[in-house]
Amino acid sequence: MNRRKFDMTELYDYIRAKEGKYVLCFDIAGLHAVNTEKGRLAGDKVIAECLRRIDEQCDDSMLLCRIGGDEFALFTDFTGEKAVAEFASKVLCQNGKTVLCGNENIPVSMRAGAMKLAEKMKYGELFTRLSEEVCRVSEDIGKCGFVKS
Prior knowledge:
Elements lengths: L7 H9 L5 E7 L2 H8 L1 H18 L5 E6 L2 E5 L5 H12 L5 E4 L2 E4 L2 E7 L6 H18 L5 E3 L1
Parallel strand pairs: 6-7
Antiparallel strand pairs: 1-3, 1-6, 2-3, 4-5
Helix pairs in contact: 2-3
């Protein structure tokens, strides 16, 4: 079995350099249902479409990470809430548009939330906070939309 080794130190150093800036957390709405009802291929197409939508709005200063099966974190250089909300709106305005899988159009929607990276945030705290933000976004919004913490 082939194994890959990763050094998380470089990623952590990159994130630490983003202190005081916002990270956007995205969650795909209804991915479990798509996987269950339509199959994994359909779920993979939904994930790829969400990544495309986020990436389409990104610039070279941003880093997009998949942090869970249907969750993503986008590290930005935004320091103000207005810029974060505008960016999220550009991604979320595509909610409800479909992706084709076989002969079926599957609607794709996401939710988004944002948090400002605290100064001197420790490694364990960072990933705990990201996870908490994604959970908050998933639970707090009945419909797809954007919230800030």
